[in-house]
Amino acid sequence: MDSKSSRESSGIQNKKNQATKHGLAAVNLRELIWTRKDIILTVLNTLVTFGDAVEIYLPGVITQTASSELGVSAAQEGLLGIVLYLFLALSYFVLPLIKDKIGRKEGVLISLYTSIIATVVCSQVPNYWTLLISRAVLGFCIGLNMSTVGVLFSEEVSSYGIYNVGSFIGLFAFSLGGGWMAILAYLLLGKIGWRYFVVCTSVPIFVPPIFILHCLLGDIKERPVIVANHDDEDFDSLMQDETIKVKGFYGRVVKSSMANCINIIQGWGSILLIPAMLKICEYDNSKLTEDQQLLILALLYGGAKLFGRIVSIFLLKYIPFRVLQPLLSIIMAACYLALILQSQSLVVTVVSMGTALICYCVTRCELTLMEFDKHYFGSERLTLAVGVMAGCGNLGAVVGAVAAQFLSIPDAVAFTFVLSCVQVVVICCITER
After folding, report:
1. Which end of the chain is more exposed for a tag (fewer CB within 10 A), N or C?
2. How many CB atoms lie within 10 A of CB 31?
3. What is the DSSP annotation of 293-361?
4. Which of 346, 268, 292, 339 is nearest to 56 (CA)?
5. pLDDT tens, 102-121?
6. What share of the chain is helix, strand, coil (3-state, %, to 5)?
7. Helix H or strand E segment including 413
8. How far apart are CA 129 and CA 127, in angstroms?
9. Overall pTM surpassing 0.85 (yes/no)
10. Which DSSP letter does residue 372 get?
11. pLDDT (tens digit, 9 = 90+) per residue, 355-387?
């Protein structure tokens, strides 16, 4: 009997250690039991994330075209480029009020409807200031629906394993949305103009989530958590009942928040930096045409990031954090150093930014899983850790957009290179992971 209890206890502990060490990569897909509600929530989270990615990558495609038509100054063009990211970051401060006062589902619906209205207004504005205001409102709504649907998803799915799988699918959809935006710009922007392009690419992606929230999600009643077998039941009970405490909580929060901030500066800053760099690149002693630039954007935004999301599953599973993440940080710093040395070379730009985006995506997956990991931060103050880490990430999004939009290209690349070197040190200091 003691031997049997020992084996069961050992099995539970092995599962606990595996989930703590590998997160998403350790999930056994065959053991997951998907309910109807899990499937609907995963589809909802995926669609909203995809739509948000389309809107987030849109400024990198239309800003210069819209600014040229409206005849604005360079400073006004820069503000137009970053206003969406600024108000997206500010929206996170309103999230607690939205969650507590009107609820998760209602908050997502309000933000989606407002996004449609703001998009239509954006396409019909007669001057710069109304365009700026509509983009600000849209950024605020994107932040609300992206964060609120994430909370709804994490609270309502039936198990931690399904949450991990659904989160990865969401990250995959975000990368797909960036590539989709660039492809549509390559095919349609020059033919229909930026005003109709905004409506055609933005409004349709908000309709399916609204349908799901009204017609499908509301019909599902709450149900208890379903588990696969006896061992899983013991394991889930153990994980829910125990209070997890960790040493060096504040040190962990500081290091993870710094890593999150720098990582998002690298990733979100590239949304505006890459289009600007492609405009100065030369191929056969001539500048790239607009179609060529959009095609390369599609390959970088979509191909490189999708590849990064896919390989992250295997890299995070088979290579320890202390080996993989410092290596990725060094590679990213080397990519930006190459851009400093050869900023006008098309080959160097494409290879360096493609490699940097792949590294960014792998690190982004790790930091996303870390952000909600109660084994890393402890269960008692997990909410505090999540809030600080997310806040620093939002700050990074704004800083990255400002640097790419207002600094010269050499200065923006040098700034990101310095931060990439700092990231190497920060990642190496995360010894608890």
Report:
1. N
2. 13
3. HHHHHHIIIIIIHHHHHHHHHHHHHHS-HHHHHHHHHHHHHHHHHHHHHSTTBHHHHHHHHHHHHHHHH
4. 268
5. 777 787 888 888 888 887 87
6. 85, 0, 15
7. helix 409-429
8. 6
9. no
10. T
11. 999 999 899 888 887 876 667 787 677 767 777
